[in-house]
């Protein structure tokens, strides 16, 4: 069974992004970019399935600018077998990515697709769900445990206030939670091998997909600056602040 993993190139999570002066977007021009952390977890899970003999091939896919090649090489260095880059300079929105992945799934016929639960740049958490809908395949989101048995996949999913266990027929789409696994670091031999692994490039037009954005960003703004706190000298003073005029606990305590 082939496992297809979607990996997105995002601003590194250590970078503090700034809004462009015209408020049109955030400035990522010189920011350090990395593999979306949830997608590293997805690659790790797919590689573990292959190492356990439950998957035959791990195909990683990234959609976007030419530099997505680095993202794919990083995934190949972790152990993925093959990569496809869907090249476009258009700023892709989740529905466009889902359509591209849908077209690739029809071409590649994976038994399982693993996406991150969200990309840390747009925080949309939409692509995996939209892909499953386009394919008409079952989906399990926020996966914290994945077990493949007898043509089905059992998935423990994080939900509000706990977890639920779903059993899906294959093919299926999963999205990864942080608790699923601890992604490995790419080894030096892994990085060397990655340079020789196949990496194909296709365009949205070759896949027959129109990636024109359907949504327009009206304005991007910094979050409001937090008011500075006050230092109090005693618990009595703290309670007086909280319960006094305008205090957060005013009226809440007897
Ligand atoms: P989002 O819906 O944008 O939060 O993204 C959820 C997941 O979809 C990511 O963790 C990736 O697995 C996948 N994804 C989103 N955008 C891309 C992209 N441009 N290329 C490859 N995978 C993507």
Pick out its properties:
binds adenosine monophosphate; alpha/beta; two-stranded antiparallel ribbon; single chain; Rossmann fold; 2 domains; 254 residues
Task: List the topology elements.
Blueprint (H helix, E strand, L loop, with lengths): L1 E5 L2 E3 L6 E2 L6 E2 L5 E3 L1 H15 L5 E8 L3 H11 L3 E6 L6 H15 L3 E5 L10 H9 L3 E11 L2 E8 L2 E8 L2 E5 L11 H7 L4 E4 L32 H9 L11
Parallel strand pairs: 1-6, 1-8, 6-7, 7-13, 8-12, 9-12
Antiparallel strand pairs: 2-5, 3-4, 9-10, 10-11
Bound molecules: adenosine monophosphate (AMP).
Averaged pLDDT: 94
Structural class by SSE content: alpha/beta
The molecules bound to the chains, other than polymers, are: adenosine monophosphate
Output the helix-strand order. Answer: EEEEEHEHEHEHEEEEHEH
Low-confidence stretches: none
Can you tell me the CATH superfamily of the largest domain? Answer: HUPs
CATH architecture of the largest domain: 3-Layer(aba) Sandwich
Count the E strands: 13
Termini separation comes to 63 Å
Overall 3D form = globular
Major sheet: 9 strands, mixed
Helix content: 25-40%
Beta-strand fraction estimate: 25-35%
The top level CATH class name of the largest domain: Alpha Beta
Q: What fold name goes in the CATH topology slot of the largest domain?
A: Rossmann fold
* Total discrete domains: 2
Report the C-alpha radius of gyration, rounded: 22 Å
Could you characterize the architecture of this molecule?
The structure is a single chain. Strand 9 (139-149) and strand 10 form a beta hairpin. Helix 3 crosses helix 4. The protein is built from six helices and 13 strands. The chain has two domains: 2-207, Rossmann fold, CATH 3.40.50.620; 227-254, no CATH class. It has helices at 37-51, 68-78, 94-108, 127-135, 188-194, 235-243, and strands at 2-6, 9-11, 18-19, 26-27, 33-35, 57-64, 82-87, 112-116, 139-149, 152-159, 162-169, 172-176, 199-202. The strands form three sheets. A nine-stranded mixed beta sheet has the order 11-10-9-12-8-1-6-7-13, sandwiched between helices. A two-stranded antiparallel sheet has the order 2-5. Strands 3-4 form a two-stranded antiparallel ribbon. Helix content is 26%, strand content 28%. It is α/β, with parallel strands linked by helices and 254 residues long.
